[in-house]
TrEMBL record:
Its EC number is 2.7.13.3. It catalyses: ATP + protein L-histidine = ADP + protein N-phospho-L-histidine. The chain crosses the membrane at residues 6-28, 351-375. This is histidine kinase. Residues 390-609 form the Histidine kinase domain. The keyword Transmembrane applies. Keywords: Coiled coil, Kinase, Membrane, Phosphoprotein, Transferase, Transmembrane, Transmembrane helix, Two-component regulatory system. It comes from Sphingobacterium ginsenosidimutans. The keyword Membrane applies. InterPro entries: HATPase_C_sf, HATPase_dom, His_kinase_dom, HisK_dim/P_dom, HisK_dim/P_sf, Sensor_HK_Regulatory, Sig_transdc_His_kin-like_C. Residues 64-114 form a coiled coil.
Length: 609
């Protein structure tokens, strides 16, 4: 593969990776914004609920105190007080039922907000419209969906989705109180792709509303009945609830309540418990700080978990007015803040972060692995090219020799000389054997790669085998002026394997020692037993190799680069063959070498038990 192609592939893959990262960042940022908005709405709803409960609690507590005082003042008004108690009970029941209605509505509102945040193109449809047109398949074609652009400030338009019917048919009344939404799916070109219906629980509970109406009717009757008796405690309670503003005495009691210091009207522990209860009800369980303000001064504050809170200067604060029913302005406000708000929202998004990070790491890993494979294949391609050049050089010499000898045999004068013919025939035979050996080595490596090479499993005396290979190499060693030192001291030398391939292993190692020699070559060959293994060491004082080359000598086709100098013959297959054969015969090989100091190979084989 050319360098330009590799650069192009890396560039395109990098661009794709950056694009995926950008899309994931945009998705996470948008999800964080939506989660933050839902969090703010839930906290504000909790604050509003707590403020209402505090106000109702004060009114009820004050009413109870006043009622007890009135009972103590006069036993003659016992009947009247019983009626007042009944009114108070009715009011309490009404407030409890209203609280339940509020919870139903808040739950509905939360589901509605989540739905709108998920599907921007959503339209509320009436239940009768759903029953008349949408639910009945034969009339669904009458439903028409239009996108209407409404001009806003400047040159901008607001796009609204309008749902209507193209034909009026007899209406079918709603069969339940559910709230239904039509979700419209459109593409970037504002073309309608489809629609779906989502139903949410009712906004209210008709049974609770009916019960509240019945209790209020009963309460009004009791109030009218007691109106002729003058001012009573429950009148003040009703007034503060907005029921009986025509009683001037109620105004006086309301003013009396408002005159009390704000600090005396609140209990920080109760406020804390109410807030925790409301927030947990909305799935918010994080620590927060409470502040109660009167005009511009802070009266009370309480930190639930100081160790988890940071500097609140840059945090978002949520506030609501306290005792809004007082005459005049509200006397104070309740404020809370979450210094670790970002961590809370991020924790809620953990179910998104984990798979996204996993996919990102997988993508980066695949990208890195692909680059490694590309560079590895490029390197293998270069090594194979070098192998082909070496193989051509190795094959060229015997072929040229055979050709010259063959042409010589055609000469009648040479053909008449029997000795010269015999010599030329021997040259042709030797060169053919040499050429065949080269081809056989290449074929053996091919068989090893294809797992088709068959190995014998027989007892082999390694000491005898090494001695025999050493004897066969003596002539070559003498020709270069070197010598062997042999010390085969292993007492247990029988291993199970293939004698032919074992001999090729040691031949390759000794052949390398002779090839890469310098000056006075000395090769030490020894064997010894270590545990259940026999270790055969072949050490030379040749040219050695650097650490960089030491890690690669067992790779196929790898040869230490020498430029265009071919003073050392070979294909770069010998050591790869040695390692593969030893691995198949349960052995292994190690190497140590220093530049210009020599190389030591150790062949480790398990002895037969």
């Amino acid at each position: 593969m050319k360098k330009n192609s590799i650069v192009l592939i890396i560039g395109l893959m990098s661009l794709a990776l950056i694009g995926v990262l950008a899309m994931q960042f945009y998705f996470l940022r948008d999800s964080y914004r939506q989660k933050s908005q839902l969090f703010d709405e839930s906290v504000n709803a909790a604050l509003t609920a707590v403020a209402g409960k505090l106000e109702r609690r004060e009114v009820v507590d004050f009413a109870k105190v006043q009622q007890e005082r009135n009972i103590e003042k006069s036993k003659q008004e016992q009947a009247k007080q019983q009626q007042l108690t009944e009114q108070l009970q009715l009011q309490t029941q009404i407030e409890n039922l209203r609280g339940k209605l509020e919870q139903i509505y808040q739950k509905y509102k939360l589901e509605e907000d989540r739905l709108k945040a998920t599907y921007p193109n959503i339209i509320n449809i009436e239940n009768w419209f759903y029953e008349t047109y949408v639910k009945r398949t034969q009339y669904q074609d009458l439903v028409e969906i239009n996108i209407v652009k409404t001009p806003t400030n400047g040159l901008y338009y607001q796009e609204d989705v309008i749902v209507s019917a193209t034909k009026t048919i007899p209406r079918i009344e709603a069969k339940d109180d559910s709230t239904r939404f039509l979700i419209v799916h459109i593409d970037d070109f504002k073309r309608l792709l489809g629609k779906s219906i989502v139903a949410l629980p009712p906004r209210s509970n008709p049974k609770l509303s009916k019960r509240i109406f019945e209790l209020e009717t009963k309460l009004n009757k009791l109030s009218k009945k007691n109106a002729g008796y003058g001012f009573n405690v429950y009148d003040s309670v009703a007034m503060l609830g907005g029921k009986k503003a025509d009683y001037i005495e109620d105004v006086a009691i309301g003013m009396e309540l408002a005159k009390r210091p704000l600090k005396d009207r609140l209990n920080i522990i109760i406020v804390q418990e109410l807030l925790k209860e409301e927030l947990i009800h909305r799935d918010i369980k994080a620590p927060f700080n409470i502040e109660i303000w009167s005009t511009s001064n802070i009266l009370l504050n309480n930190i639930l978990n100081e160790a988890e809170l940071n500097n609140p200067i840059n945090t978002t604060k949520y506030s609501t007015a306290l005792f809004k029913g007082d005459v005049g302005a509200a006397p104070g406000k309740l404020t809370i803040y979450f210094p670790n708000k970002k961590a809370i929202i991020a924790d809620n998004m953990s179910y998104l972060l984990l798979p996204m990070l996993t996919l990102l790491f997988l993508l980066v890993g695949c990208f890195a692995y692909t680059l490694i494979i590309i560079f590895r294949q490029k390197k293998v391609s270069e090594m194979k090219t070098d192998f082909i050049n070496n193989m051509t050089h190795e094959f060229k010499t015997p072929v040229a020799t055979i050709m010259i000898a063959s042409e010589s045999l055609k000469d009648p004068d040479i053909n008449a000389d029997h000795k010269r013919v015999q010599k030329l025939a021997n040259i042709i035979y030797d060169e053919n054997v040499r050429l065949g050996n080269h081809i056989e080595r290449v074929l053996d490596l091919a068989k090893l790669e294809k797992e088709t090479l068959k190995l014998d499993r027989e007892d082999v005396h390694i000491n005898d085998l090494v001695a025999a290979v050493t004897d066969s190499m003596q002539l070559r060693m003498q020709n270069i002026g070197g010598k062997f030192s042999v010390d085969l001291a292993a007492t247990k030398d029988i291993v199970v394997g293939d004698e032919l391939h074992f001999s090729n292993v040691f031949y390759n190692l000794m052949d390398n020692a002779i090839k890469y020699s310098k000056g006075d070559l000395h090769v030490n060959i020894s064997s010894k037993n270590i545990g259940d293994n026999i270790v055969i060491t072949i050490a030379d004082n040749g040219i050695g190799m650097s650490r960089d080359h030491l890690q690669k000598i067992f790779d196929q086709f790898y040869r230490i680069p020498t430029g265009n100098v071919h003073n050392v013959k070979g294909f770069g297959l010998g050591l790869s063959y040695v390692q593969d054969i030893l691995r198949r015969l349960n052995g292994r090989i190690t190497v140590k070498s220093e530049k210009d100091k020599g190389t030591t190979f150790e062949v480790i084989l398990p002895v037969k038990k």
